[in-house]
Amino acid sequence: MSKHTPGPWSAAGNVIYPNLAGEKCIAKVSGILSAENDEEYLEFEANTHLIAAAPQMLEALEAAFDHICPDGDPLDAREFEVCGKIEAAIAAAKGEV
Questions:
Q1: Angle of the 77-93 helix axis to the 54-68 helix axis, nearest 10
Q2: What is the pairing mode between strands 9-12 and 15-18?
Q3: Phi, psi of 82 (to 5 degrees)
Q4: How far apart are CA 41 and CA 81, in angstroms?
Q5: pTM (2 d.p.)
Q6: Residue 28 to residue 32: CA distance in whole angstroms
Q7: Per-residue pLDDT tens over the stretch 9-67
Q8: CA-based diameter of the chain, in Å?
């Protein structure tokens, strides 16, 4: 089991919250924002949404790995490549790299 705060998470502006009653923010995406730079703000907001989706993406990757790579034995070279990428992403998300 992962040691991260269970998902789902939600994003509001540049802040990420767990969807648990009474929980405080998990993280804030920060940087120096200029009032004149809407593109930079939109990038921070997009990064916040990407991070907030992390628990859901990890769950989907684990399900995909179980489906595509049963017993760690992919069927062909393309599946072997995909299984490797999925396995690496799961390991990175769990801090195992």
A1: 150
A2: antiparallel
A3: -65, -45
A4: 36
A5: 0.79
A6: 13
A7: 988 878 898 886 667 888 888 766 655 667 877 888 888 899 999 999 999 999 999 98
A8: 53
